[in-house]
């Protein structure tokens, strides 16, 4: 993308309405704009981030054989009456009437709809397990939307739903999903620690939240540093083996980890002092096992091996995709701006033309840009070098390729790594190889 022609409105000043760093930086870097309270438009660079996050989430869901669908945002109130949640859900639910005075709602979550969809389709135990997911907008009429996309009213969620033949199989599915989550967050360049959680309005008796450490997080967190040391991408777990899944689950859940709501001071004292990590966290994912709560209340059964009907065991698994854009910034920034992890950055590099209009500088920049126009944000504006450097730091591209008249003459550029500030002078080809690698 060429910056001179892009819809990328950066701001020099901190917007007064933004209380936390990610909200400030998302507005300043031109990623989002508010259109109504708790509702945001995603601008081109922000949308790229949202898509990059979604794609990693999708790949890790597919890897554990969850199947992607796309359910609508609008749902019929009758579906929710079947589970009894229409009245129970309260004022967070946005209720809508169509021209025929039929009651609809903008989905805050999809347990009812997916259970109905499952019931229309799956008739026998032989077709289990089934795991369906989608990445879709939700609406919750939060009392106090705040912190930008971190607590919005409309937000993008990945929600998955599982149907199993019995408890043992449902728990294996839950554990498989836990592994998928740890891999997902690691690929997104952040550490999210799973913690035992309350189930709230979703219901059920087994639940974990995944929290990213950030000073502005809404929950207090306490955990054993042993949880920071694992590499989940290389974790050799055979996800078809319930025994291996159990061993993995025990490894993850044995070290102490709890939010303030579930904190147990005595157990905390037992963690060696050097390993105690205490701070605040942002919830980026939440998984639930709730057995037959929805299949039973909605009358969705399938036939078993003995020919008798039974209610499949369910779980649901959410990731806050739009919240993650903010949460990643909370975890990855400095005083100059965002420091995107490579995997989510909207552009791999900015090309900073220090002398736009100079024949040689323009030619070198165009040559680099033409190699991968989608990967670069080419700063071709006739701005001062200082403005270009500041904007590139603010926007947080992993690399900056600096093209100035002196080095351009020798066919060389300066390459800066945003995360470390490290600079090196390289040939154009060497710089391209580094920036476009991986
Ligand atoms: N049905 C279940 C799992 S699919 C469910 O709705 N779980 S949840 O309520 O915990 O939401 C899942 C994730 O969505 C949360 O972990 C959080 O990351 C994100 N989320 C929830 N509310 C908001 C909100 N108001 N703004 C942004 N993200 C949110």
UniProtKB/TrEMBL annotation:
Record flagged with keyword Nucleotide-binding: yes
EC code(s) of this entry: 6.1.1.15
GO biological process: prolyl-tRNA aminoacylation
Pfam family, one: tRNA-synt_2b
Gene Ontology CC entries for this record: cytosol
InterPro entries the record matches: aa-tRNA-synt_IIb, aa-tRNA-synth_II, aa-tRNA-synth_II/BPL/LPL, Anticodon-bd, Anticodon-bd_dom_sf, Pro-tRNA-ligase_IIa, Pro-tRNA-synth_IIa_bac-type, Pro-tRNA_synthetase
Domain Aminoacyl-transfer RNA synthetases class-II family profile: 33-341
Assembly, per entry: Homodimer.
NCBIfam families: PRK12325.1, proS_fam_II
Name of the protein: Proline--tRNA ligase
């Amino acid at each position: 993308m060429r910056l001179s022609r892009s819809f990328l409105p950066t701001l020099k000043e901190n917007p007064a309405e933004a209380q936390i760093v990610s909200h400030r930086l998302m507005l300043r870097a031109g990623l989002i704009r508010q259109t109504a309270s708790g509702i945001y438009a995603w601008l081109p660079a922000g949308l790229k981030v949202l898509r990059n996050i979604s794609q990693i989430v999708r790949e890790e869901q597919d890897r554990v054989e969850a199947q992607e669908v796309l359910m609508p945002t609008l749902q019929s109130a009758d579906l929710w009456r079947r589970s009894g949640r229409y009245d129970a859900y309260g004022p967070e639910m946005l209720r809508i009437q169509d021209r025929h005075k039929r009651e609809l709602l903008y989905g805050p979550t999809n347990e009812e709809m997916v259970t109905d969809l499952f019931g229309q389709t799956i008739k026998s135990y032989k077709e289990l397990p089934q795991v369906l997911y989608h990445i879709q907008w939700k609406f919750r009429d939060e009392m106090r939307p705040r912190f930008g996309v971190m607590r919005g009213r409309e937000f993008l969620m990945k929600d998955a739903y599982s149907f199993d033949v019995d408890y043992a199989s449902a728990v294996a599915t839950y554990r498989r999903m836990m592994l998928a989550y740890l891999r997902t967050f690691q690929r997104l360049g952040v550490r999210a620690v799973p913690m035992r959680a309350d189930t709230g309005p979703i219901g059920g008796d087994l639940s974990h939240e995944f929290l990213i450490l950030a000073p502005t997080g809404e929950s207090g967190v306490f955990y054993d540093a042993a949880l920071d040391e694992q590499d989940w991408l290389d974790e050799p777990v055979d996800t078809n083996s319930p025994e291996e899944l159990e061993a993995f689950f025990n490894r993850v859940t044995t070290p102490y980890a709890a939010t303030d709501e579930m904190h147990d001071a005595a157990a905390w004292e037992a963690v060696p002092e050097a390993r105690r990590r205490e701070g605040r966290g942002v919830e980026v994912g939440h998984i639930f096992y709730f057995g037959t709560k929805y299949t039973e209340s909605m009358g969705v059964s399938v036939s078993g091996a003995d020919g008798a009907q039974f209610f499949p065991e369910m779980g649901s698994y959410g990731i806050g995709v739009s919240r993650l854009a903010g949460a990643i910034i909370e975890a990855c920034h400095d005083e100059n701006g965002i420091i995107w992890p490579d995997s989510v950055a909207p552009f791999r590099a900015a090309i900073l033309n220090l002398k736009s209009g100079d024949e040689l500088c323009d030619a070198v920049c165009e040559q680099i840009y033409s190699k991968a126009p989608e990967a670069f944000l080419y700063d071709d504006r006739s701005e001062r070098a200082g403005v270009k450097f500041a904007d590139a730091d603010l926007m947080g591209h992993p690399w900056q390729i600096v093209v100035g008249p002196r080095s351009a003459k020798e066919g060389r550029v300066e390459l800066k790594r945003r995360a470390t500030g490290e600079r090196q002078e390289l040939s154009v080809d060497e710089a391209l190889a580094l920036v476009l690698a991986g």
